[in-house]
What does this fold into?
Amino acid sequence: MEQSVAARPQGQAGAEIGAAQAAYVGALIAQALAGDRAAFGTLIEEHYDLIFRTAYKWSGTKSDAEDIAQEVCVKLATALRSFDGRSAFATWLYRITLNAVRDMQRAQGRRGRGIGALKAVSPEDQPPDQEEATTTGQLWRAVRTLPEKQRDAVLLVYAEELNHAAAAEIMGCKEATVSWHIFEAKRTLRGLL
Amino acid sequence: MSDDDFNSLNAIQPPEPSPEAKRRAIGASLMAFDAAEEARKKESAIPPQGLSWRERLKSIVPHLKGNWIMDARLSIGTAALVLVLLPLGYQLYSTTALTQPHPVDIKTPPVVTTTPPVLQPVTTPTQNAHANNDALPSTPTVPAGPIAGKDESGAAVTANLQPPTSGDVAKPEPKPEPMMEKPSAPLAKTLNEAPAQPVNTPALADADTSTANLPTDGLAPVPATEAGRAQASVASGGEADLAAAPPASAQVSGGIVMDKSMAAPTMAIGARQATTPTGDKFANFTESAQKAVATDPVSTFSIDVDTASYSYMRRSLEEGRIPEPDAVRVEELLNYFPYDYPAATSADTPFKPTIAVFPTPWNSKTELMQIGIKGYEPPASARPVSNLVFLIDTSGSMDEPDKLPLLQRALTLLVNTLPAEDTVSIVSYAGAAGVVLEPTKASDKTKILNALDNLEAGGSTAGAEGIELAYQLAEAHKLDGGNNRVILATDGDFNVGISDPAALKTFIKAKRQSGISLSVLGFGEGNLDDETMQALAQNGDGNASYIDTLSEAQKVLVKEAGSTLDTIAKDVKIQVEFNPATVSSYRLIGYETRALNREDFNNDKVDAGDVGAGHTVTALYEITPAGAGTTPPVDPLRYGSNNAATPAAVTPADGKNGELADFKLRYKLPGSDTSRLIEQPVGPSMVVDNIGNASTEARWATAVAAFGQKLRGSDYAGTMSYADIGQLARGAKGTDEDGYRSEFIKLVGLASALSGPDKPSNTDVPLDKPIVN
It folds into this structure.
């Protein structure tokens, strides 16, 4: 995951780099808000990978992930104005991306292609973009069938390797609640796997 | 599912996004950005819609806004609704378990009247109420009435209690009856119109109504329970309304309250509270009935060494309430006390039954058969090593002085007595379950005590999660041949997680088979789910104790630690077969929740109670000797081969002629799955003809059983008064080293005071004279 280090709130690249990165992103946001088109373009370009990767992990297919990423980018054009700087930009971006994932999956559910149905078809219809025949793939698919909150908690903590506090900030709940969701998820998965 | 499994999730490598998708996204995003910028520019050009600032300011002053009809701010309907709902709400609030029964303030404002009971006929409620109260501010008040908690109709009735009108109406109209029948009025009507209470009546609503049952002279209080019952029956009849005039306590000018009436209100209050539900839950059960030996010669039950019911009853009585009938389980009362039965001598035959038969003090026609057994007490050195997991409820409801803090002190007592090689772990649960203390040897007391001290209450309860976690810990450090036990300490709340008691029971049963047992310690009041506690402990091969004071904790966890923690026999069942030639009918006192089928006795798969080291278990049968001149409880059958229905037809085998019954006891040694049998016939030599000649322990058990039955309002309680019970108990106190028996005698006195004056003792059985059958 080295390529994502820069964009992470809790990256492994050290505090100085994190701080410098944060200042740089902050400056870009300020310019974009002032109407600087180029600054906005750079901001999007730098974070597109993060958005796409998150969307992919949550949705599991490349085409869905691309759709979601595009939607998030479009949303950012207006939503950026509501970014208040209280949390790190990446944290805020996670939240927006997760919301977009949820919205899309709900919309799919409404269109009669339930998440369950999608999951049942996807392995055959859409050949996996990587080796998913491994147990990791199975686990990953199982995790994506969990209830939203539990899935979010597990993926943020284990797939994104954030700590519980950061995951709690993204999910907008308390740290203990994240731990609880993970505990619940483990219990549910014990039955599934 | 472990963390390692989940950690493999980070191995997922998302593919690189395709460049064209990225370009498309960025393009779309930039277009959206442009559009947003455009919109923003336009927006700044358009003046804001709505009123200018002066208009806005104006709108905060209603007078300036014009007086069209929609703006009328006085909502008469709402005001009327509030007038109705507020009293109703207060009524509900003050009669639910949310409110502690608060001590009634006897202080009354200096009202210079001796307000007499005034009977106010409300045959036509509306007109009358209006006519009488025109001059008075009409405040619909709904005080907490004597039986307000019982049911809604009861509340309606009490709402009708009319306080005397204004202070200057000093016409004494003494009224002999506290209540009177009147045509019914619907609830809403009654609430709304009838109780127009004058402002200058003695202040406290509670005090008013609680004294309502007192005669004006402040002398002997009306047995308030009876009054309450009568009221309830009237209410449930639904045909009559009450206008009991509250007589106000006898007040003297200057606000001095006469001494005599001081005691009376408290009593009346106690009786009132007797019917107030506490919020604690108890399983319903009906008393076991008398059975005819001819048709039903065999009685089978599982022993019960729980004592929770006694502690709960004690707490109730000490708080001035008669406990609910279902909270009183006679067998738990009996087994609360240590009895001085001869102990068994070896671990192989861990029981020695003691049986005696003597006349029943509350019924001259019957006799009592007392069965006492004492478990073997292994020497301290032979105690198995324990692996204890404390599962502690730290939910918000535990944040009361008699819950978590008491629990902490109680467990401190226990930890201090544990031998060094024992293991202790602590799991707490509230919201989410967590391990507070990893398994620690008892030698490291400081660490354990620190962990205990750091517990804090907060959050909701997830009892089921906690139980799983606790069992995991217990299993991880399971000691073969040792005592592996989860000790659940809770106020009985299992409202999150697997809240289905049946699922919990199954879970605990499964764990029991893997060698881990469960004991339950109950704390506090108002939230206690006695039924679940009992069920969990019974399924977990453990016992349920209710801890209300530190001395109770001392008794359960220190003095009787052996019996609480160290099981010497499992699945102990008792079966008694009565001889139809000598006994015509019998009744097992207590053990209603522990009854077993006859065939369960020999079935080793059927679970039953466990006995700890040194535990004593007592059971009493009330038996009617054959030919005792009583009406047989069951008439002989006319058809069918029922020769046995008449005692004369029975020809028992030789040598067994005089026997009353045959006592059998089955038990399993710990770690064994096959039961063993102890058998002992009850012969004539065990019969004494005067209760005065019965052993101290027998008389004590009799007194406790009589008390339990009386508290339960049992049909079989007979004519014994509390005073008689107290007298019998005092005579059987024995040495009573720990003071448990003295405490019981005090409780008898308390119950007697709370339930109003006893009817004069008209027991036909003199306690100190021989009884001739």
